[in-house]
């Protein structure tokens, strides 16, 4: 492998020395969540969502409790523009929900974005971004640091000039994680000054790991450094937007919250460009399994999954955390045995069943699928299936002997044996069901 072609993160961006405190902190409450499925998720789809899909997705997000939702990139397409117009001119946005519209720092596209929210009743966040990392400055935007700072200042002023009282402001230095920290502080100072950041009307400063390039501790250090050094800190909502290129988007988000992030952007099951945005459902349910209320209702996870799959036209992997079809299922014998004993030993509300980090019932699933039988299974799992599906009670000796029959059967077929198949086999072996 030509690994010499790549440099580690420390060779690409200065990571400032830091008296870090995040490793000693705990996650004790949910951050502000902002699903960006209708913008960042949407821009990753081969077929972007049509108006009906956008609306269905939006209504789902409102129904499960999101209070701030990025709804589109109005200057990107007529569909995006029209959807924002629909929200601005209808009753679809409840009073307690704020929508976010996204724009690059280009004057004509800012103007189009502001046009899309004309006459809106409730609160709206105008989210402006510009890529700030050196390669993007030099190669993509072809601007020096000062020239790019000027573009951002002009964009912030344009937004301010045309925005009414109901507008709040957000800035994202795209590729924050590869941008020099002193430059981020300079831009943060500039936008928070132009937008008059104060606690009563805070500015959202969103620090994306646009392309994930480092272990999560590095991102956490970068976020804590900003938390400690940002100008007008009490007038800023510090937000993060992790992607999942190294497969550690979840860890980046969790450590970033420990490090001082107050708000997290992502997509509900992690859709997004390349390997996706951070997965908001996983983040929320991770909190739930630590005893922290995520403030979003995932109690009917399969309904949420069906809507997301319909809107994105993409299936969710069977091993996807919490929601995958197989994540509450054990095929392997010793795990089935432990689950069976754990389920039987339950007392009270506390959930401590081996190998099941969450009670499937919390997310609307039953217990039928927690144990399924194939050639990797053992007597405990087989007995569990027959008992729960048909009330068959086997003695310890019978369990041992029947398991040998099942093993021969599953070895011969190479397949899973359903509860019905097990019952038929049981009747063949013992003459009748007990
Ligand atoms: C990390 C992110 O997710 S950022 C969001 C990315 N999402 C999208 O791009 C989806 C929607 N985008 C679009 O529909 C189109 O790209 C549009 C309408 C925004 C722009 O389309 P076009 O005018 O055809 O330009 P194009 O797509 O080629 O963009 C490149 C231009 O934008 C400029 N640009 C890119 N980002 C920014 C920015 N944040 N602020 C200002 N200018 C920018 C580039 O420098 C380039 O300018 P140049 O042509 O002078 O070199
Ligand atoms: C500009 C922003 C928020 C973004 O989508 C990203 O950096 O990934």
TrEMBL record:
Key words of the record: Acyltransferase, Transferase
Record EC number: 2.3.3.13
One GO biological process term: carboxylic acid metabolic process
Domain Pyruvate carboxyltransferase: start-end pairs: 31-302
Catalyzed reactions: 3-methyl-2-oxobutanoate + acetyl-CoA + H2O = (2S)-2-isopropylmalate + CoA + H(+)
Family to which this protein belongs: Belongs to the alpha-IPM synthase/homocitrate synthase family. LeuA type 2 subfamily.
Protein name in UniProt: 2-isopropylmalate synthase
Species in which this protein is naturally found: Kribbella sandramycini
